[in-house]
Amino acid sequence: MKITKILAVIAFLFSSFQLSAWGYKAHYVIAEIAERNLTPTAKAKVNDMLNGKKMAYWADWLDKVRSDNTYDFTSTWHYANVDSGYTYETMTKAATGDVITASDLAIKMIQSQTENDSVKTMYLKFLIHLIGDLHCPMHAGRATDRGGNQHRVTWFGNETNLHRLWDSQVIEAAREWSYSEWADHLIAGTTTSNIAQMQSGTPTEWFSQTVKIADYVYNATPQDQNHSFKYVFENLHIVEKQLTLAGYRLAYVLNTLFN
Fold first, then answer.
1. With b meaning 16 or more CB within 10 Å and e meaning fewer, what string describes 2-14?
2. 109 close to 115: Cβ distance less than 8 angstroms
3. Helix 117-133 with 229-258: angle, nearest 10 deg
4. What does the DSSP 8-state code read for residue 221?
5. b (16+ CB within 10 A) / e for 34-68
6. Quick count: other Cβ atoms within 10 Å of Cβ 225?
7. What is the pLDDT of residues 101-125, one digit of tens each?
8. Alpha-carbon distance 195 to 178, whole Å?
């Protein structure tokens, strides 16, 4: 009986964690792209605030601290579940905040003239993560299935769910690259005009684009079907685009803040 209870708790915790983020590698890729595109002024300020550590070092920190109840106030900040037929503007908002309100708050706290440096650094770590999350399709997934966590599929014959599939399994099946190699290839070929186009808009507008992608993902991934390399081939370009957009947009936000 005790073993059964322990296994149930582990399963619950793992399921809850899957609500929280892209997989760690995706967050590292986003942070690496962003860091390579900071202005010298912004890079110096970020480096100082992060005590010399790379942005990628902190990119999945907001997920890891979920085990610390000190950060319980951030539990709903990773996503905004938008049911079919709704938009971010018309959906029911979480009273404790969502990925958009949290991103706005982080920007305001970093800009604050009254907060101390440690608080600003904490919110910088939050922001590095949050800009990534608002580009993850299942972070705009439906409330009715907990952002795809209850949307069951199989992946190469093994049971999984739609959230996990788009958080990490597609990217891991596609390439056996390090996060820096991913960044190398995603940056290659971008031009100044490409970057300017990617960086236009606001976090809310960026998230609205993610909502549309989430709708596509649901339609392209029926429940209880097996998916494998064909699915990777058909959808990897979406993952790559979202990682690239998130990286350049995070750079834009930080350059704007620190310049």
1. eeeeeeeeeeeee
2. yes
3. 150
4. S
5. bbbbbeeebbebbeebbeeeebbebbbebbebbee
6. 10
7. 999 999 999 999 999 999 999 999 9
8. 23
Backbone φ and ψ for 10, nearest 5 degrees, come out as: -60, -45
Count, residues in the chain:
259
Q: Where are the domains of the chain?
A: 2-258
Residue 20 CB contacts under 8 Å (≥ 6 apart), including other chains: 62, 63, 66, 78
Residue percentage of the chain with pLDDT more than 90: 90
Report residue 62 as tokens: 């907001």
Q: What does the pLDDT look like over 247-257, one tens digit per residue? A: 999 999 999 99
The answer to whether 133 and 22 are in contact (CB under 8 A) is yes
Q: What superfamily would CATH give domain 2-258?
A: P1 Nuclease (1.10.575.10)
pTM: 0.91
Q: Amino acid identity, residue 73? A: F
pLDDT, tens digit (0-9, with 9 covering 90-100), for 156-215:
999 999 999 999 999 999 999 999 999 999 999 899 999 999 999 999 999 999 999 999
